From TrEMBL:
Matches recorded under InterPro entries: PRELI/MSF1_dom, Slowmo/Ups
Official protein name in the record: PRELI domain containing 1a
PANTHER family reported in the protein's UniProt record: MSF1/PX19 RELATED
PROSITE patterns, per the entry: PRELI_MSF1
Boundaries of every PRELI/MSF1 domain copy: 2-174
GO cellular component, one term: mitochondrial intermembrane space
Domain of life: Eukaryota
């Protein structure tokens, strides 16, 4: 039994910009879990397509109930293979990624196609598909649901990371990260509370002299 998921989105940048950002997207504030990226091979086909394979190392703590099925060193990290084919003439980029660690417990295969948005050629359309499976007897359905929820959550971070890198490439100020926004809000709240406390103290002091 395999759980299938698909979705589509877009980036408000040209395909050429997105293609360049793809190779520069790490590090960014939304990808702190990506530890390393290594090129295994890269070649240009007779059709002038660029083919690449990379190995990514990520922090990916397995759920506590799954840790007993994994060696200690594998429960903290995940190793991902990423294949990509870039067709500069057709202006498409197709990526296929899958995990080679934790695969005994859960396997996630993702396919993304980046192409020029047909309604706005200055934007890039992304179609994403995922196949999630598990061969762990008795727990496969629960594991697939867990994997799907984690995958959906990662899409938001991936898109925000892309937008951050694109903004830097285009010389714009990237929007605040969630952590930065939370810090600013906390400072504003603390400052407002401090001012209110001063005001209450001032009013209390005035009452003493009345």
């Amino acid at each position: 039994m395999v759980k299938y998921f698909s979705c589509a989105g877009f980036l408000k940048s040209s395909w050429d910009q997105v293609f360049l950002a793809f190779w520069q997207r790490y590090p960014n504030p939304y990808s702190n879990h990506v530890l390393t990226e290594d090129i295994i091979f890269r070649e240009v086909t007779p059709e002038n397509c660029l083919m690449s394979r990379r190995l990514l190392t990520k922090t990916s703590r397995a759920p506590r109930w799954a840790e007993k099925f994994l060696p200690a060193h594998m429960a903290q990290k995940a190793y991902i293979i990423e294949d990509s084919v870039v067709d500069p003439q057709g202006r498409t980029m197709t990526t296929l990624t899958w995990n080679i660690s934790h695969a005994r417990v859960m396997s996630i295969e993702e396919r993304c196609v980046y192409r020029v948005n047909p309604d706005n050629n200055s934007w890039t359309e992304i179609k994403r598909e995922a196949w999630i499976s598990s061969n762990l007897y008795g727990l496969s359905r629960a594991i697939q649901e867990f994997g799907l929820a984690r995958f959906k959550s990662s899409i938001t971070k991936t898109m925000k990371g892309f937008e951050y890198v694109l903004a830097k490439m285009q010389g714009e100020m990237p929007t605040r990260t969630l952590a930065e926004t939370a810090t600013v809000k906390a400072r504003e709240t603390a400052l407002a509370a401090k001012e209110k406390a001063k005001d209450l103290a001032s009013q209390a002091q005035k009452k003493q002299y009345v």
